[in-house]
């Protein structure tokens, strides 16, 4: 995500100087470490390197402000149970006059965000990601944050929360896609509501949050949308990034029933339709929204046969 995109969207502006001041005031033990912007940033948070071994993440808007405290509490609980590296929080910053929300210092998670050119065996990568999700989805949910406004209802009822928005976007696209088939995807999800048991979910399994070292999946970052509920939203990458053999490998390695896949298609369709209708930018490593919609519709037709 480009810094200019976030500034144009009205996000709270954070620069290197502000981060230096916050760190120096609240965590003087790190005051002498250099601060620099990261090359690959996200939408919900500003991210900066702090020396070589740490990073600072600061929410970009009020809607993301709760992510810092949630991750600070839950990542130390989840990390020892997961098979891949995840960020470990080091310190929780407090709101101040020049920055209004909690913010976090984490250790730096090694690896590069996945690009196809970095992964010689995308099928194995898909299987490894499925294995990570299977472990995450089986962790004890006791006390975990139930899907809600804190994670934009990832893990909630995709149709109940986003169905109307999806239908409005599809109506705008009626001259560009097969809207009847797309509506059938939403109907199929509505006919297969989640019945539990609830699972831990990441909430934003996307290419920018998957790290590669030595050609293999090595880490998963950005748990700001994590929560407890229906894990169907974690399967959206099926159509965003995988194709052919890698898509089949991911599907086969995920222990999901037909209902979960129906809801996953609805999550993917909602997001792709919204992005296509609005013209919002997409990640260069992900398929275009039109391609995602086409893949979801093809998948739905194949499963309905």
TrEMBL record:
Taxonomic superkingdom: Bacteria
Gene3D superfamilies the record matches: 3.90.1200.10, Phosphorylase Kinase, domain 1
Cell membrane among keywords: no
Keywords, ordered alphabetically: Transferase
UniProt cross-references to SUPFAM superfamilies, sorted A to Z: Protein kinase-like (PK-like)
Keyword set includes Transferase: yes
Domain named Aminoglycoside phosphotransferase: residues: 40-267
Gene Ontology molecular function: transferase activity
Name the UniProt record assigns to this protein: Aminoglycoside phosphotransferase family protein
Lineage summary: Bacteria, Pseudomonadati, Pseudomonadota, Alphaproteobacteria, Hyphomicrobiales
